[in-house]
Amino acid sequence: MQNPKTLISEDEIRKRVDELAAQISLDYADKGELVLVGVLKGSFIFLADLSRRLSIPRHIEFIAVSSYRYGSTRSGAVRLVMDMRRSIEAKNVLIVEDIVDTGHTLDYLIKMLKSRNPASIRTCTLLHKEHSAEVDVQIDYCGFSIGDEWVVGYGLDYDEKDRTLPYIGVIEPDD
Ligand code: 5GP
């Protein structure tokens, strides 16, 4: 099987993550500690890079949801499989996602976390398949808009494969 074809290079990712971190640092300057909530597993590399480039006080939490059974087969319902350890009440919260596709996962997360009474809640996603949207979901910071194709790398997988590729790639069908 050949390597996934490059869609977004390491360099392009680095530059965009720098820009997002600068914007977020500006927007939250003098607002106290920001709680970054990474959505496992896909966001762990993006969150690691983004959080290290912020110039504001921040705290990292992780949450895990399951929205796909395996591979690229959609299962429909979103389910919380791991919660964070700290209360977010009265905190500024930024949900950090790897990719927004139909929007159901992010919609579920925003509603769930809003019910915990944070001071504010915003969302940041590295990738957005904007033409696949099924629900109108709030995206405050977006790295790249992409088409409706299955992407891997930089934290994203296909059946647990290709997660640690340094770039975002597309798997091409075998010839
Ligand atoms: P949504 O609920 O927006 O349809 O889906 C969000 C989740 O679907 C993401 O967090 C991710 O786990 C998965 N997903 C959607 N598209 C892709 C893709 O192209 N590649 C990978 N690896 N995961 C995807």
Here the CATH topology equals: Rossmann fold
Number of domains: 1
Helix/strand structural class: alpha/beta
Beta-strand content bin: 35-45%
What's the Cα radius of gyration?
16 Å
Q: Measure the end-to-end span.
A: 10 Å
Biggest sheet overview: 6 strands, mixed
CATH architecture: 3-Layer(aba) Sandwich
**Which small compounds were modeled alongside the protein?**
guanosine-5'-monophosphate
Strand numbers in spatial order across the main sheet: 4-3-2-5-6-7
Helix content: 10-25%
What is the number of helical segments per DSSP (H or I, 4+ residues)?
Answer: 3
Give a structural overview.
This protein has 175 residues and is of the alpha/beta class. The chain has one domain: 3-Layer(aba) Sandwich (Rossmann fold), CATH 3.40.50. It contains 3 helices and 9 strands; from the N terminus they run βαβαβββαββββ. The protein has helices at residues 10-27, 44-53, 104-114; strands at 5-8, 34-40, 58-70, 73-82, 92-100, 120-128, 141-145, 151-152, 168-170. Strands 4-3-2-5-6-7 form a 6-stranded mixed β-sheet, sandwiched between helices. The radius of gyration is 16 Å and the shape is globular. The model has no long low-confidence stretch (mean pLDDT 92). Bound molecules: guanosine-5'-monophosphate. Residues 42, 67-68, 97-105, 150-152, 156-157 line the site of guanosine-5'-monophosphate.
List the helices and strands and how they pair.
Elements: E1 5-8, H1 10-27, E2 34-40, H2 44-53, E3 58-70, E4 73-82, E5 92-100, H3 104-114, E6 120-128, E7 141-145, E8 151-152, E9 168-170
Parallel strand pairs: 2-3, 2-5, 5-6, 6-7
Antiparallel strand pairs: 1-9, 3-4, 8-9
This protein binds guanosine-5'-monophosphate (5GP).
